[in-house]
Automatic annotation (TrEMBL):
Record keywords: Glycosyltransferase, Transferase
Molecular function GO labels: 1,4-alpha-oligoglucan phosphorylase activity; thymidine phosphorylase activity
Source domain of life: Bacteria
GO BP annotations, alphabetical order: pyrimidine nucleobase metabolic process; pyrimidine nucleoside metabolic process
Matching SMART domains: PYNP_C
Subunit structure: Homodimer.
Name recorded for this polypeptide: Thymidine phosphorylase
Domain Pyrimidine nucleoside phosphorylase C-terminal: 334-408
GO cellular component terms given for this protein: cytosol
Organism of derivation: Actinopolyspora alba
Keyword Ion transport: no
């Protein structure tokens, strides 16, 4: 095979054969295909696309670039959830122990935040002692004994993807539907889950913002997962406004715990239950009612076990910001919109996110959104709490938040949390 011919074929709108795909990803993993050649191929794929068969093969080859876990020895069905990323999306934290308490095993290999969206591992690391890195033996043991892990994918999981993701980030090739599908699903194939539910976000805070492209991403993800033998379905969910009240690491952990205790914001509980039902259905367990399991306290107990099994203290106080600043409503009316991306950006400015991979996040930093679209607000009422350890960031973050909402005197029609189901 010649990499130049493969790039040229895709540049000219051709289909890549299974053999070409297998070879180019293997050669890239071995260092024989150079970064600039992979960058050119990524751009050709972004411009020309890949059909379902190419995407399925691409995904399988990316998964096979590293270690493939085998969870077949567990005595329970395995099922995982993946979100395409959003603002205030702490769903994994409550959903994983809930589904484990329902009797499935949940191997949740997660990532960190980059840009305006948060990462599950960054959130959990605000719990004193909690470890994201598990050895393979520990991962199997916790899945067997607790029924769930939430941990970092090691460098051995889909190594071609971690290199390629870094390339895409600096070559304007992130926004390709087949490349996103290959990237997300290669890690899920390698993790060995039997079923998978995708939470595909739609709206200003999402990875892709145009509804038609989001729908195409959802359909491609579902087809690519199923083509590779993972029972896959997807929910299209709203990410126009942040999910729930809290945006930022420790603030989101607190909110997830409140969901597990039956006291969470209703939309967060609603989405957690909708995804739990979808996960249980795809594992042949639709007879289990997750709402009953949540109400019984079993999911909260499972959360405590999950945190403790990874070295965390479920009773420890979480970090609290040195400064909390309140922004108030300038007038009375109905909150018409609250822009997820702008709120994510404000939380990021306050220290919740990172600009480069190697930066540290501030665990206590973030924003609490005290009013959500559809709520009636009175002039002078608090709209946002800004939490930060760095008071110098408050002015910029406040400016972002002042531009993030509209108050209207008219009626407000709000979007449902779950927009569509894609199978
Ligand atoms: N998340 C991933 O893991 N990969 C992508 O390409 C986009 C989102």
């Amino acid at each position: 095979h010649s990499v130049v011919e493969i790039i040229g074929a895709k540049r000219d709108g051709g289909r890549l054969s299974a053999a070409q795909i297998d070879w180019v990803i293997d050669a890239y993993t071995r260092g024989e295909v150079a970064e600039e050649q992979m960058s050119a191929l990524a751009m050709a794929i972004l411009l020309r696309g890949m059909d379902d068969a190419e995407t399925a093969r691409w995904t399988a080859a990316m998964a096979a670039s590293g270690e493939m876990l085998d969870l077949g020895a567990l005595d329970r069905p395995t099922v995982d959830k993946h979100s395409t990323g959003g603002v205030g999306d702490k769903i994994t934290l409550a959903l994983t122990p809930l589904v484990a308490a329902c009797g499935a095993a949940v191997p949740q290999l997660s990532g960190r935040g980059l840009g305006h969206t948060g990462g599950t591992l960054d959130k959990l690391e605000s719990i004193p002692g909690w470890r994201a890195r598990l050895g393979t033996a520990e991962l199997y043991r916790n899945l067997d004994e607790v029924g769930a892990v939430i941990c970092a994918a090691t460098e051995r999981i889909a190594p071609a993807d971690s290199r390629m993701y870094a390339l895409r980030d600096v070559t304007a090739t992130v926004e390709s539907v087949p490349l996103i599908a290959g990237s997300i699903l290669s890690k899920k194939l390698a993790e060995g889950t039997a079923s998978l539910v995708l939470d595909v976000k739609c709206g200003s805070g999402a990875l892709l913002t145009e509804p038609e492209r989001v729908r195409r991403l959802a359909r491609t993800l579902v087809a690519t997962g199923n083509d590779n033998g993972v029972r896959t379905s997807a929910l299209l969910t709203s990410m126009s406004a942040p999910l729930g009240v809290a945006v930022g690491n420790a603030l989101e952990v607190t909110e997830a715990v409140s969901v597990l205790r039956g006291e969470g914001p209703s939309e967060v509980t609603e989405l957690t239950l909708a995804l739990a039902r979808e996960m249980l259905a795809s594992s042949g367990m639709s007879d289990v009612d997750p709402a009953g399991v949540l109400a019984s306290g079993a999911a909260y107990e499972k959360w405590r076990a999950l945190v403790a099994a990874q070295g965390g203290d479920p009773d420890a106080d979480l970090p609290v910001a040195a400064h909390v600043h309140t922004l108030r409503a300038p007038q009375s009316g109905n909150l018409a919109t609250l822009d997820a991306r702008a709120v994510g950006a404000a939380a990021w400015l306050l220290g919740a996110g990172r600009a480069r991979k190697e930066d540290e996040v501030r665990h206590a930093a973030g924003v609490r959104c005290l009013a959500k679209p559809g709520d009636r607000v009175s002039g002078g009422e608090p709209l946002f709490e800004l939490h930060t350890d760095e008071p110098g960031t408050i002015e910029d973050a406040s400016r972002r938040l002042h531009g993030a909402y509209e108050i209207t005197q008219g009626e407000v029609r709000t979007e449902p949390v779950v927009l569509e189901r894609v199978t």
